[in-house]
Amino acid sequence: MKALLLKYATPFIAGLFLVSLVSGVALFFHVGNATFHGMHEWLSMVLILPFVLHLWKNWKPLFAYLSGAPMAIALVASVALALPFATGQDQGGRGGGPPQIVVARALAKSSPAQVAPALGMQAEQLVARLVDSGFTAASVDLSLAEIASRSAKDEQALMAVLAGATRPQQ
């Protein structure tokens, strides 16, 4: 069994990398997001096993790479390129991510008094809806993020209330 796994490690890396490449490019250009999102995430996770098997099978030659300057430079450069994304900042410092997430972050900084008109209601109605949904710290002048935090709930649950995905308890 070990020989079989090791025999197919590199071919699976190649195949899964190609799937990841195609789905990643499609996601980058916002083509078929519903189709490619789950595929990209799950098959990237599956890619871990053949990658580990490939490392195991080729440990000696790979170790030679690890001890050289090109590998060190490549790893440092890769981490440096990833850091702006990991910290939520893109190259322009504007905050990255999908547009709907950027808008949700901006919305979370707003108060019910600012958000309510866009939802077609009065600020007091929105506060009452939030309180009825368990956001006990709701107030017209606090930001939505502060309301969620002070109510010991997450912002996603609060956004679900705003979207009408949850109904106030009767």
UniProtKB/TrEMBL annotation:
Domain of life: Bacteria
Keywords: Membrane, Transmembrane, Transmembrane helix
Keyword Transmembrane set for record: yes
TM regions (residue ranges): 12-32, 39-56, 62-86
Protein name: DUF4405 domain-containing protein
Organism: Rhizobium binae
